[in-house]
Write a structure and sequence with these properties.
Structural class: alpha+beta
Keywords: Electron transport, Iron, Iron-sulfur, Metal-binding, Transport
Number of helices: 2
Pfam family, one: Fer4_15
Organism: Halorhabdus utahensis (strain DSM 12940 / JCM 11049 / AX-2)
Mean pLDDT: 96
Strand order of the largest sheet: 4-5-1-6-7
Helix content: 10-25%
Protein name: Ferredoxin
Radius of gyration: 11 Å
Low-confidence stretches: none
GO molecular function: iron-sulfur cluster binding; metal ion binding
Number of domains: 1
CATH architecture: 2-Layer Sandwich
Strand content: 25-35%
Largest sheet: 5 strands, antiparallel
Distance between the termini: 14 Å
CATH topology: Alpha-Beta Plaits
Order of helices and strands: EHEEEEHEE
Length: 81
């Protein structure tokens, strides 16, 4: 499973931080940060999700009020917008 984070879209509600430890607050920028994520050419940040963290990643995506987090399965199919 892979999570994709659009930091540009993030509005800093930090609900993802509560749901998934891979996210942290960046108070200076007013946005969340996907720790250890890799930035892609299109400005997104991606992270492979460990099997025991999949549920947390899905909850983080579902709680994001602006859909800045997307979860994909291992075949690349979108699971959570």
């Amino acid at each position: 499973m892979r999570i994709e984070f659009d930091r540009e879209t993030c509005i800093g509600m930090f609900q993802c931080v509560v749901e998934y430890d891979a996210f942290e607050r960046d108070e200076d920028a007013g946005k969340a940060v996907l720790v250890d994520g890799e930035e892609t050419d299109d400005g997104m940040v991606t992270l492979d999700v460990a099997a025991d963290e999949e549920l947390d990643a899905k909850f983080a995506a579902r709680t994001c009020p602006v859909d800045a987090i997307t979860v994909y399965d291992d075949e690349g199919e979108q699971l959570v917008p």
